[in-house]
Specification:
Shape: globular
Largest sheet: 6 strands, parallel
Strand order of the largest sheet: 5-4-1-6-7-8
Radius of gyration: 20 Å
Structural class: alpha/beta
Number of domains: 2
Number of strands: 8
């Protein structure tokens, strides 16, 4: 793990510009690997991703500090890989209505996400709600969400292609989320059928959830990797805190549900605005 973090600066600053290979550099690497032009069945997709990467050199929003090439990437789920806000908001609204409780605007619900099902319920229920009401609301939400989440959940544009590209390059992929474990495994399996994840861990009974580093450490142990060889990627300051507590690199994404200013203040190793920027320093 890098021993020093620098302040994040936008593209345009020489010291923080993303390190992106040129086509010529990529061709040289392919020759060293014994790969001839046109011989790679994935070259068309790789070229598309490469073109988008090269365009980032002229764009705005590529934030980059010192990032060491990882052997594995652990991703948060909600707000990082998938936009699940519509499904969560709709299920929560119906659950509240079923118990005669007032609804919340979607913007407010956006701020409830990331703390697990009970955290979501605790924030949505009226202040001072007793445990029986919280338990009933949580049960109603989970029952509804189990049947309807697919109607309100979508993979963020560009994410699936980037994950496939990373996997082809030999980087192990994993998911660590505070979403209940059964929902997490079902969602990842349904939305990313062509990908292989080394681990998918959601919130489990008796296991502390993020920002506790237990899940991240468990994934690294499963992979047989030191913490310094793993990068954790997420849309919240909780993900940054989890990475630091585990001794891993932290990459924050700006397209999720959490405030960009707070992400910047937490000083992740990198802050990115597009999924393709995940490849900028690593391929």
């Amino acid at each position: 793990m890098a021993s020093h973090r620098t302040a994040l600066r936008p593209t345009g600053s020489t010291s923080s510009r993303c390190s992106i290979q040129t086509e010529a550099q990529m061709a040289t690497q392919n020759r060293k690997r014994g790969r001839l032009p046109g011989s790679d069945p994935t070259s068309a997709e790789d070229t598309t991703i490469r073109s988008r990467l090269l365009s980032l050199q002229k764009g705005v929003g590529c934030w980059h500090a010192r990032v060491v090439t990882p052997q594995a990437l652990i991703f948060d789920l909600d707000g990082t890989l998938v936009d699940s806000l519509p499904g969560i908001a709709d299920s929560l609204t119906r659950a509240l209505a079923s118990l005669g409780l007032p609804p919340h605007k979607r913007l407010a619900i956006r701020g409830f996400i990331g703390h697990g099902a009970r955290g979501l319920i605790s924030r949505a229920a009226p202040a001072g709600s007793a445990e029986p009401l919280l338990a009933a609301l949580e049960q109603a939400f989970k029952a509804d969400y189990d049947l309807t989440w697919q109607q309100g959940t979508a993979v963020y544009p560009g994410v699936a292609g980037v994950l496939a590209h990373l996997q082809r390059r030999g980087i192990a992929l994993a998911v660590l989320t505070n979403k209940p474990h059964a929902f997490a495994t079902s969602m990842v399996g349904s939305l990313f059928p062509a990908l292989t994840f080394a681990a998918v861990l959601g919130q489990r009974e008796g296991i502390p959830h993020k920002p506790d580093p237990a899940g991240a450490i468990e994934i690294a142990a499963t992979l047989g990797l030191p913490m310094s060889a793993v990068t954790l990627i997420g849309d919240s300051t909780m993900d940054i805190e989890t990475a630091r507590s585990a001794g891993m690199q932290a990459v924050a994404v700006s397209w999720g549900y959490h405030d960009r200013v707070a992400l910047e203040a937490s000083m992740p190793d990198a802050l990115i605005d597009m999924p393709e920027e995940l490849l900028a320093s690593w391929v």
